[in-house]
């Protein structure tokens, strides 16, 4: 657990495990804990960097407009601060949008790319039929943690997963009580998603790319992952099911297998000369 000051903001970060560098980028409502369940598996082969993005968690929340490009620049600067010359990059949801910009704006820093439950944005994005619970789950107002957690669980997990895991709502509520959303910062982060559009630039991504999504995603339609796979040269698409937006929690074993298999196929970092 540590902090670094980059691009004028203080970012909270954690480093886990040993091996080739891996950067993980969380989603809109998430923070560095987003990947907690995956860290033991990832850390066996990778020095894994997780952090709270600008406007999230324990990091600064300045009153400035946000874009996925700015957040990508933050990630690149944090990599420099912790000594990551380059890294594999795994981004989910909003983090996947930031990962796209990181690969486009700082291609030398991205050895390979894993994009989860995300989209290119712009007019080509495929919408989903909005569940009534979405307005509560993603409200920009201050609402009770339990109310937001119930709605969030409904739109991010499949019904089957919720039936088998009735305690998930209370765990989500406890996490939200521990780290409440800042309404204004949350509004700025939502605006960054609305402005995101990499569709025309995606063919410029040249690193190996894996795209993962849940077939039953109610937040980002799985067809958006197909668009990413069609636009990024050589990208591989894997669709997990049954799985909603938080596919790495619903299909933890399959996600670990897909991610670790993909990463194991990448070229090792060259050794530095003494």
Polypeptide structure, described:
By secondary structure, the chain is of the alpha/beta class. It contains eleven helices and eight strands. It has helices spanning 39-43, 68-82, 94-105, 133-137, 145-156, 159-164, 168-178, 183-195, 223-231, 247-250, 252-264; strands at residues 2-6, 9-16, 20-25, 46-51, 87-92, 110-116, 209-214, 236-240. Helix 9 links the parallel strand 7 (209-214) and strand 8 (236-240). The two termini are 29 Å apart. The model has no long low-confidence stretch (mean pLDDT 95).
Helices, strands, pairings?
Elements: E1 2-6, E2 9-16, E3 20-25, H1 39-43, E4 46-51, H2 68-82, E5 87-92, H3 94-105, E6 110-116, H4 133-137, H5 145-156, H6 159-164, H7 168-178, H8 183-195, E7 209-214, H9 223-231, E8 236-240, H10 247-250, H11 252-264
Helix pairs in contact: 2-3, 5-7
Derived from helix and strand composition plus strand pairing, the structural class reads alpha/beta
Give unreliable regions as ranges. none
Number of helices: 11
Helix content: 25-40%
* Structural domain tally: 1
Beta-strand percentage range? 15-25%
Report the sheet with the most strands, covering strand number, pairing sense and barrel closure: 8 strands, mixed
Order of helices and strands: EEEHEHEHEHHHHHEHEHH
What coarse outline follows from CA principal-axis ratios?
globular
- At the first level of CATH, the class is Alpha Beta
What fold name stands as the CATH topology? Rossmann fold
Defining traits:
8-stranded mixed sheet, alpha/beta
